[in-house]
Design goal:
Blueprint (H helix, E strand, L loop, with lengths): L10 E7 L6 E7 L5 E3 L2 E3 L22 H14 L16
Antiparallel strand pairs: 1-2, 3-4
Length: 95
Amino acid sequence: MKCPLCNSDRVYLAHEFGDKVGDGLYTHKCEACGAKRINGKWTKKCERCGKIVNALHGLFVPHLCKSCLDIVVENDRKIGNVCLMCRQPRSLCCC
């Protein structure tokens, strides 16, 4: 299966948790652009705030909107959660 938004073939089946224990469903997600299929429609939805956006950001699999990524990076910097090799915040490190 290919992602209709970015034409990547890096689509996998992922488990989404519901509101109750044991509740949940499986949905398709794209590793390249972060889009997932919600109610049969491919959308790019931030995993942190739930906004639907045009582009998702993240290090390996994009899953955050730009404002949420900025918050996560700033929190990493504030608490000193940085890589010892490259000195980048852990949320941006790929060492």
